[in-house]
Fold this protein.
Amino acid sequence: MGNSPLKVVAPVAPELKPLGDALVFMQVLWAVAHGLESVSKRMHADLGITGPQRLVLRIIGHHARISAGELAEVLHIHPSSLTGMLRRLEEAEMIRRESDPFDRRRALLELTRKGMRLNDQREGTIESMVEAALNRLPRERVATTKAVLSAIAAALGTGAEPIDGDAPSEASPRVPAKLRKPTAVKKKTRKQPKA
C-alpha cells in the first residue's frame, strides 16, 4: 500500500425536477426585466436617457401632443407615476408643456428639438433590439406572444387589456378615446310630419 493521492469525486447533483409552465415563464420574464434594466442603464450612459424615458418620448412624438393623463392611459399606469419622469424630461429640455388651446386648464406635452433628436435615435436603444428580435420571428408567433404577455399583465392588475394578438385598431380600448381618429357618425334625420 503506497501513498496514493486521494481521488476527489464531485458530488452528483440530484436530478432537478422540471418547473411548471408558470415558473418557466417567470424565469423568462425575469431575464427580460434584467435585460431591459441593463440596456436602460447603458442607454442612459450613452444617450442620456433611460429606456422608460425614451418610451415616453416615443409616445409623445407619435401623438405630437398628448396630455399627461392620456399618456398614463396609453402606458397603463396611474398619472402620478409619471410626474417625476415628466419633470426630469422637462428639466433636460426634451419635452415642454403647452396649454391646450381648447381647454386652458389642461396642459399638452410635446417634444422639444432635443427631444425630437432623441426620438429619432434608433441605434443602441431597447426599441431597436426588441424590433430586431421580433423581425426574426413569424408574425403569428409575435401576435401570440403579445396576447400571452397582455393576459399576464391583465392578471397582474396593471390595467392592460387582454388582446387577441392583432395590432391595435383605432377603436381598440388600448387607445384612449381622445386619441382615436374620429369616425363618421351617421346623422339621424327627423321624420317630417305628414301634412
